[in-house]
From TrEMBL, chains A, B:
InterPro entries, per database record: HTH_LacI (IPR000843), LacI/GalR-like_sensor (IPR046335), Lambda_DNA-bd_dom_sf (IPR010982), Peripla_BP_I (IPR028082)
Gene3D superfamilies: 3.40.50.2300, lambda repressor-like DNA-binding domains
Residue ranges of every copy of the HTH lacI-type domain listed in the record: 7-61
Key words, A-Z: DNA-binding, Transcription, Transcription regulation
Name this polypeptide is given: LacI family transcriptional regulator
Record keyword DNA-binding present: yes
Length: 344, 344
């Protein structure tokens, strides 16, 4: 039943005529191995389809076989999907996943000051939250591999979507079907941290308005989540001039916006079009038009990058960008004459 | 910024006049310490509000400071919520969370045969999946603390809701408002494993029907998930006699059932009442009546039980049962005369 590991470090050592310790050092990218020897070992390992296993690799000392995943939340669709992709990929590579959830800034500060990761892990995957310069330096200091998901930090390899392009896809759909008054509900960290995805999606919204020759912006910035979406739509509806379509930071925000519209008796899409980003499972249920992003695949790609780094390879792409695409459902339609229609 | 650890094992040792090693052994519940000494050490630790920290505890050898969490899925609301509760509680206790997702039986078999947990963790939390006798014995053999969530296994401490009672609460609501033809959509593991929650909820459905003097059962058993719910409702609608209300294993199943009803043009709740279990975030969106279970709290309670076990205490409750309660929304109503009403 159990697929036995067919190849081990001793096989690679035998094939290249060096010691097991040298193979281990070479495959983990450590110093003390010439480039020529490293290349020979790498080639032999590739030929034998040898995957670094933590048990084997720790024979020579350094490796723990563990990778830390640092997230700001666990029980939200986005984060649990990323985590599922990471865990699956790491486990396939023989690595264990250590999970750290840092929800508020005080936890984050304590974490980066104490750095409990020291000597505990071979690599760290940081999901989505913006690192301060100080935090980035602390991570560099502990000398393990680092991969960033849904953000960028220094020279660390990263996995992202193009957030600006995703916003342009969403707003472009609205301009194409004829909307000229388009709002945006952003999603802001309650503690005021600037998330890259929010800023880049705002830039995409603006770029697409400019491209369509629309000068008028309707932007609100409530705290993220469904309640933020509810509140954001209330703000947009209470303005002197109300848009006919709203681009929401995410599907969860859009679901909140839809709730407010339902309560206000404003029919969707007849009197208001709504679009999100994600293709969260709730989007299908709510018949929500959205821009799909491959979330679990982000985790898989980051896991693969870690395995490559620990195997002594640079990752195939230093800054991987996964594709997004428009999914048209029932929450968007061309604008009508402006009358509020009765719900059907 | 960082709350410094105020108290350490040396303080406890000083206070009780024993060695640090003895404190460590006593607090981790190891042999070689008399009951009298253990009680004195425990009392001193409690007085000093000392929490076992893995670094301190590993000074004496045995402890790793890590707890393995074994789940059958990560990116589903239920599991990510349990996981959030566990991680939060363990981190507060100075313990790290190692995550293992075993989705299919081949992974499960390999995992329990190879037992990668050996020497890696101090405790294991198993979430929801049914352990075979063999797997239970393997877990006992590695000699670490084990806590079970949403199931029972041997003498391991467990955290559950009363699944039968939750089902009785759901079906009781339907009988109270006058339904006499009540169906159930179960949720079955695609590989045929018998999940305790499914069996106990089925028992609750039957018990409540019996209590109401209803002899007629309408039970379908599709694979779990939203698609299973869609299919389950199709099966119920295609029978010779159709119920007026349906109890679904979970809210995700109920959402699938609602989709089928919408496609079939059957108005909810006028022609069909639907109730789930969970109070999944989607339940509010779908205006679904449900029985709420405290999911994150299950994780918190299991994390606390692990910390108690590792501190040498038996957990406060060996088989903790958390409460559930009915949340009435718009998807249930008294049965009508049987006419299919138009949707409003």
């Amino acid at each position: 039943m159990i697929p036995k590991q067919q190849v081990n470090m001793a096989d690679v050592a035998r094939r290249t005529g060096v010691s097991i310790a040298t193979v281990s050092r070479a495959l983990r990218g450590e110093r003390g191995v010439s480039d020529k020897t490293r290349l020979r070992i790498r080639a032999a390992a590739d030929e034998l389809a040898y995957v670094v296993s933590p048990e084997a690799s720790s024979l020579s000392g350094g490796s723990t076989g563990r990778v830390a995943v640092v997230v700001p939340r666990i029980n939200a669709w986005y984060y649990s999907s990323v985590l599922a992709g990471i865990e699956n990929e790491l486990r396939a590579g023989g690595l264990d996943t250590l999970l750290y959830c840092l929800e508020v800034s005080s936890q984050r500060e304590a974490f980066f000051e104490q750095l409990p990761l020291r000597r505990k892990v071979d690599a760290v995957i940081v999901v989505a939250f913006p690192l301060t310069r100080q935090e980035r330096i602390r991570l560099e200091e502990i000398g393990v591999s680092v991969v960033i998901i849904s953000a960028h930090a220094g020279h660390f390899p990263s996995v992202n979507i193009d957030d600006q392009r995703a916003a342009e896809q969403a707003v472009g759909h609205l301009t194409r079907i004829g909307h000229t008054k388009i709002g945006m509900i952003r999603a802001v960290d309650p503690e005021g941290l600037a998330y890259e995805s929010d800023l880049r999606r705002l830039a995409g919204y603006r770029a697409q308005l400019a491209k369509a020759g629309l000068a008028e912006e309707f932007v609100v910035a409530p705290p993220w989540g469904t309640e933020g979406g509810e509140h954001g739509m209330e703000l947009l509806l209470s303005g002197p001039d109300v848009p006919t379509a709203v681009f929401c930071f995410s599907d969860e925000v859009a679901v909140g916006a839809l709730r407010t519209l339902r309560r206000a008796g404003i029919p969707v899409p007849q009197s208001m079009s709504v679009i999100g980003i994600d293709d969260h499972p709730v989007a299908e249920l709510a018949d929500l038009t959205t821009v799909r992003q491959p979330v679990k695949e982000k985790g898989t790609a980051a896991g693969r990058a870690v395995i490559e780094l620990l195997g002594g390879h640079p990752p195939a792409e230093r800054a991987a960008v996964l594709p997004t695409h428009l999914v048209v459902r029932g929450s968007t339609a061309p604008p009508t004459s402006g009358t509020v229609h009765q719900r059907t």
